[in-house]
Amino acid sequence: MINDSPSPENKVISLEGKKIKKIKYDALNNPEQFWSECAKNLVWFKQWDKVLEWNPPFAKWFQDGKINAAYNCIDKHLKTELKNKAAIIWEGENGESITLTYNQIFYKVNQLANALKKIGIKKGDRVTIYLPMIPELPISMLACARIGAIHSVVFSGFSSQSIADRANDSKSRIIITADGGFRRGKVIPLKNIVDEAIEKIPSIEKVIVVKRTNREITMGEKDLWFDDFIEKESIYCESEWMESSDPLYILYTSGTTGKPKGVIHGTGGYLTHLYSSAKWVFNFTPTDIFFCTADIGWVTGHSYIVYAPLMHGVTEIMYEGAPDFPDQGRYWKIIEKYGATILYTTPTALRAYMRYGDNIPNSYNLSSLRLLGTVGEPINPEVWLWYFNIIGKQNCPIIDTWWQTETGGIMISMCSGIENIKMKPGSGTFSLPGIEVEIVDQNGEKLENGKKGYLTIKKPWPGMLISLWNDDDRYKKTYWEKIPNSYSAGDFAFIDKDNYIWILGRSDDILKVAGHRLGTIEIESAYISHKAVGEAAVTSKHDEIKGESIIAFLVLKSGIVSSEQLNKEMKEHIRNTIGPIAIAEKIYFVNKLPKTRSGKIMRRLLRSIVNKETIGDITTLEDEASIEEIIYEMNELNKYL
Ligand code: PRX
């Protein structure tokens, strides 16, 4: 079932009484030598002079090495038998299907790279990409990478305001978008959303528009059709020699303040981490058909749809639409149709499929699968077992991969390529070679096994974020100062007696709604920007499918009265300021919010109230009566809203 051949990597050795794989021992013993060996799997135009330049908390991996991400994903395969192999099998929501070989992708990427150069886009310029899950999305990212432009992909479910905030922060020169995108049979008017956004983004010079639907759209002065833009361009564009630590991309993610953080990933270190993690975790082979269901708008898509699988030369399936459209068996149908060997998806998708019943997956032939993966949120043991029994028919190991936008690649997971260990439903098992995880208390003191604490990473690793865009200070404070001398992940976790790691969820004000990462303060700021709202507090409630759902408490400005109409208006307002994913499951209009004596909103209390949990310590509360009042108001409101 699992590759457990007695290769040097698999050899087990003893370290301080613990059994450990040789590969992990090597990584622990001499990390720089270890990562240097890993980096040799990539194509470098010039080898690095120094493996790691570590000026805490700033790391430069493979200093003075020159490399290009697009070259490593495409060009390196063109002189091999992979040249005409399918790289991406794309399936549209409406059933269309397109297969693109490595060579075909090469053509498109080069043409777009040349077209971008022609309009003056150069190394270091930022390009915002707001596209649905269509092949032009990875093609655009790779074209940017080829010429050294920094891509900033904005998830196509975000609103015009979110695009504007991100594109203004990065000062993007162009936006690549589409006339529309399909979602559950409806067309999402992406170009109209971009039209609204660019009125607020002075730096945008051109908007490149892919034709995906037959929607009528207005083309303005700055707009160019994607196909016309690249049509006459030559099919070869020299790859830019990038310094290893040059930024490859910015990806905005939610933090604990209102403003999303622009996570910057570099090139050589990031690619090394991805290449190695994919090899250890997925154990890619030439015959694999890899199906990662993430949207490229999030980090899973960046790392494990675009960069890692293409570097490995595998064939991957890219699906445009919703998992339950046109029926509740869509993923299973795709697996059967294309013979997927690995499925990498989210607990939210699995929970929904589990609810639809076993008959649906049982009516498809899923025997091509050899490995199942999950990512993005904790997986409930019963869902894990369903995945193992019903989807994998007890033949496929499950890899529960823990990582983050900031870590670049997988950090904790069973490594199906190098180890054959006992799985425990709900545990990610162990950290990857070269990744040192420690569970600590608030002061950074290591906790003994079994004790819940903060998940930290002790040493720099190649895939780690370089910094936050234009905000080194926030980078330092957010990740490296909360717990001394460690990277602080923002998750609670514990390690059990067998040294297995268990992730327990976020320790900060970040929510995971259907696997999407949202900051409570970001949503509160959006509410407060509405003229009727004086104060807002956002928390989450346990949700059977989505893991968490958003609950908002709003204090209206004086003289404004709550109503069903206002409730609807709030939904619309959030849709327009952040996007539909941030719409609250329920809004409570209350007279006051529970606050500490220093004026901080006690979201923890609200969370306990909505989840009907014991409220715990309230000694720091400014006014204990406010809780009673809120519960009363919630009950009253329940009758109406
Ligand atoms: O809380 C953890 C959760 O997702 C957070 C990172 O979110 P994001 O940056 O959007 O990246 C998601 C995809 C890599 C983490 O801090 N998380 C991620 N994977 C897992 C998880 N929680 C439990 N188990 C996981 N396997």
N/C terminus separation = 53 Å
Number of strands: 32
Percentage of β-strand residues? 15-25%
CATH architecture grouping of the domain at 97-250: 3-Layer(aba) Sandwich
The secondary structure category is: alpha/beta
Overall 3D shape: globular
**CATH uppermost class of the domain at 97-250:** Alpha Beta
Biggest sheet descriptor:
8 strands, mixed
Bound molecules: adenosine-5'-monophosphate-propyl ester
Helix content, binned percent: 25-40%
Mean pLDDT: 94
Count up the helices: 19
Low-confidence stretches: none
**Strand line-up across the major sheet:** 14-13-10-8-9-16-17-25
Would you give the CATH topology of the domain at 97-250?
Answer: Rossmann fold
Rg on CA atoms, Å: 24 Å
Explain this structure:
This protein is α/β, with parallel strands linked by helices. 31% of the residues lie in helices and 24% in strands. The strands form 9 sheets. The chain has an 8-stranded mixed sheet with strand order 14-13-10-8-9-16-17-25, sandwiched between helices. Strands 7-6-19-18-20-21-22 form a 7-stranded mixed sheet, with helices on both faces. It has a 4-stranded antiparallel sheet with strand order 23-24-26-27. Strand 16 and strand 17 (261-265) form a beta hairpin. It is globular. The chain starts with 11 loop residues before the first strand and ends with a helix. The mean pLDDT is 94. It binds adenosine-5'-monophosphate-propyl ester. Adenosine-5'-monophosphate-propyl ester (PRX) is lined by residues 253, 298-300, 375-378, 400-405, 428, 489-491, 503, 506, 512, 517.
